[in-house]
Amino acid sequence: MKIAIGADHGGFDLKERLAAFLRKQGHTVIDVGAYDDRPSDYPDFALAVAGKVLGKKAVRGILVCGSGVGACIAANKIPGIRAAVSHDTFSAHQGVEDDAMNVLCLGARIIGPQLAEEVVAAYINARFSHAARHRRRLQKVKKIEDKA
Ligand code: RB5
């Protein structure tokens, strides 16, 4: 799978580790930065990852900042992005299966690297169910987005 990944300084180390983990699993990783741990701004990476997903250069996105929250707020401002902070494997896969989450946000100051890999694997291996009730709910989410 093609996966876009980005992080600010708070998420840089974990982003590097997750990119290596994903490559080892055979995925194609598009790393939009940051490329070092100097202070940087999470909205820049949210925009870059969202651009790859919406432009169909990547199927899924991953954002890492200190808490996951700032990157998630920024990503969800972009129409078509369904981002969520998840630090557990259940919501990481169910968020895709039921809610078509397309950007996973992680907080490097919260989650350890081992669990982060498991959460990322749960997210990447999950597929949207296409169940009628979930499609209906997604349509309603889209309506909210269109209205806003
Ligand atoms: C940066 O210090 C920090 O605020 C950022 O990485 C993130 O945690 C924001 O949500």
Please describe the topology of this protein.
Elements: E1 2-7, H1 12-24, E2 28-31, H2 42-54, E3 60-65, H3 69-76, E4 83-85, H4 89-97, E5 103-107, H5 113-125, H6 132-147
Parallel strand pairs: 1-2, 1-3, 3-5, 4-5
Helix pairs in contact: 1-5, 2-3, 4-5
Bound molecules: D-ribose.
Question: How would you describe this protein?
Answer:
The structure is a single chain. The protein has 148 residues and is of the alpha/beta class. It has helices at 12-24, 42-54, 69-76, 89-97, 113-125, 132-147, and strands at 2-7, 28-31, 60-65, 83-85, 103-107. The chain has one domain (2-147): Sugar-phosphate isomerase, RpiB/LacA/LacB (Ribose 5-phosphate Isomerase B, Chain: A, 3-Layer(aba) Sandwich). The chain has six helices and five strands; from the N terminus they run βαβαβαβαβαα. A five-stranded parallel β-sheet has the order 2-1-3-5-4, sandwiched between helices. Strand 4 (83-85), helix 4 and strand 5 form a beta-alpha-beta unit. The longest helix has 16 residues, at 132-147.
Helical percentage: 40-55%
| Biggest beta sheet summary | 5 strands, parallel
Q: Provide the succession of SSEs.
A: EHEHEHEHEHH
Q: How much of the residues is beta strand, in percent?
A: 15-25%
Tell how many strands the DSSP assignment holds: 5
Tell me the structural class.
Answer: alpha/beta
CATH class: Alpha Beta
**Which fold does the CATH topology refer to?**
Ribose 5-phosphate Isomerase B, Chain: A
Overall mean pLDDT score?
A: 98
Bound molecules: D-ribose
